[in-house]
Amino acid sequence: MLTRGAWSSKAGFILAGAGSAVGLGNIWRFPYMTGDNGGAVFVLLFLICCFLIGYPVMIAELTLGRSTEKNPVGMFNKLSRGGRLWKVAGGLCVLSGFTVFSWYSVILGWVAGYLAKTVSGTFTAQLTNAEIDNVFSTFVSNVPVVVFLHALMISVTALVVSGGVEKGIERLSKWLMPILFILLILLAVRSVTLDGAIAGLTFYLYPDFSKVSGSMILQAMGQALFSLSLGMGTMITYGSYLSRKENIPASAAWITGFDILVSILAGFVILPAVAAMNQSYAQGPELIFQVLPSIFSSMPFGYFFGVGFFLLLIIAALTSAVSILEVPVSYFVDERRWSRRRSVSIVALGAFLIGTPAALSYGGVDFLTQIPGLTMGFFSLISTIFGDISLSIGAFFISIFIGWIWGVKNGLGEIESQGNAFGLRKLWSFLIRFVAPITILIVFVYSVWSSFLI
Ligand code: PHE
Predict the structure, then answer these.
(1) In angstroms, how far apart are the furthest CA atoms of the chain?
(2) Pocket test for ligand 1, best of 324, 390, 392, 398 (most atoms within 8 A of CB)
(3) What is the pLDDT of residues 52-68, one digit of tens each?
(4) Domain map (residue ranges) of the chain
(5) Could you tell me which of 318, 306, 272 has the C-alpha nearest to residue 177?
(6) Which of 24, 172, 273, 406 has the fewest CB neighbours in a 10 Å radius?
(7) How far apart are CA 31 and CA 112, in angstroms?
């Protein structure tokens, strides 16, 4: 299939864009990053980064994609007229898509495992913190199970992507996002009314400015990019399917707003419950797997809430995984003239191979759990390099490209084509030319420094 698909309607596009943005980044990553980084101050910094950097970069990606109707490599190539550096930038986007997909599906596999556990009634009884901890560590170190779930999640995503843009992605996003949202509200209500939740609310809402550190600002920035699906050309690829009639700043505002709202809600679900359970906020990637089971076991109809929640989380994460996989796939389809099916199969197989050591790095295999000579496991390594770092470089290239190379004039021309007015044109131009690239540069320098030199 060489023809490009297109979004069937405006609401369809916004929902698919929100489907890409809302995923594990909001519900799994945001709460633990907030927990690791001292609570409310981090939330505040995250919000500032979303508005000052995320939103302008999202407009930039959608605009670049729509104006060329191409994947990131094709886009950079066309608009730079074959510039060398920009080939590298496009290639980096494809590489990030491939690699992020390989570890994202590992966490998707964890969620699938927790769905199965919830269905089978593991969490119906009230478990102690130590028991919940034990369920988690036994599960993640079970090699055949985590590898199987990883393969399963890759296959499901690959099936959706081989179906093409409209059919596969839009259909999934349209129905399930609103339901997930309502479920999160109900869970948040349960969580904030638990005994002892107040301390968690204070932690989450009352900023203690003495905790601000350079590293925190930079992590908030990385989280904003990851959560909004920016920096690897997902929104370039999605924009390439977007009709000229659509108002890009308005669509981007809807997607950004909804994504932020879901993250904030997820914080209200997780952090008050952490306090109520007397647990530590700073538990890293396993935080939600420690906290959710006890929320479900302590509420009426907890079994159904638990099953519903993990099911919807899988679907929300799948719509994100689909958008990640779409980047390398659209590159092979457009630039290499491979068939969609072949592109999907090869990328999925590669991602399975790269992701497997990540799946084994939580106790499955010792030298992957703790790489000799480093202070981290393979999962942390790959998700830091091809997550935070590569997304930062990608977003830096994108903002420099639209701000200085292709030029904001051309960008604004594309945004305002067909008579769409853009009230914030001056502000956007300033943010995308100066604020975004300079801040991202700081993020990048910092993350390399902190990951490898400390
Ligand atoms: N934004 C997605 C999430 O929050 C992850 C993602 C990152 C998707 C980068 C596409 C590109 O889960």
Answers:
(1) 63
(2) 324
(3) 999 999 999 999 999 99
(4) 10-452
(5) 318
(6) 172
(7) 19
CB distance 249 to 59 below 8 Å: yes
Ligand 1 centroid–CA 131 distance in Å is 31
pLDDT at 155: 96
CA–CA separation, 80 vs 83, rounded Å? 5
As to burial, measured by CB atoms within 10 angstroms (0-12 exposed, 13-18 middle, 19+ buried), residue 307 is middle
CATH, range 10-452: 1.20.1740
- The backbone torsions φ and ψ at residue 66, rounded to the nearest 5 degrees and listed phi first, read -70, -40
For residue 293, the CA-to-ligand 1 centroid distance in Å is 25
CA pair distance 222, 315, nearest whole angstrom: 24
For residue 278, report the distance from its CA to the centre of ligand 1, in Å. 31
Structure confidence by residue, pLDDT tens digits, 389-422: 788 889 999 999 999 999 999 999 999 988 888 9
Q: Using CA atoms, how far apart are residues 399 and 58, in angstroms rounded to an integer?
A: 10
Length of the chain, please? Answer: 454
Residue 164 · residue 5 · CB < 8 Å: yes
List Cα–Cα distances, 393 to 52, 73, 75, 232, 307, in angstroms.
17, 15, 17, 9, 38
Phi, psi of 206 (to 5 degrees): -105, 100
**Protein residue with least CA distance to atom 11, ligand 1:** 229
2-6: list long-range contacts, CB under 8 Å, 24+ apart. 2/333, 2/337, 4/69, 4/165, 4/240, 4/241, 4/334, 5/164, 5/165, 5/166, 5/241, 6/165, 6/166, 6/241, 6/242, 6/243
Per the CB < 8 A criterion, the answer to whether 194 and 28 are in contact is no
- Tell me how far apart the alpha carbons of residues 218 and 335 are, in angstroms, rounded to a whole number: 35
Cβ–Cβ under 8 Å, residues 63 and 411: yes
Residue whose CA lies nearest to ligand 1 atom number 9: 229
Radius of gyration of the chain (CA): 21
Exposure b/e, 126-164, CB count within 10 A at least 16 = b: ebeeeebbebbeebbbbeebbbebbbebbebbbebbbbe
Distance, CA 298 to ligand 1 centroid (Å)? Answer: 31
Nearest CA among 49, 53, 77 for reference residue 64: 77
- How far apart CA 160 and CA 172 sit, in angstroms, is 9
d(CA 193, CA 206): 18
* Predicted TM-score of the model (pTM): 0.94
The pLDDT value recorded for residue 177 is 81
Pocket of ligand 1 (CB under 6 A): 20-21, 23-26, 100, 226-227, 229, 232, 234, 320, 323-324
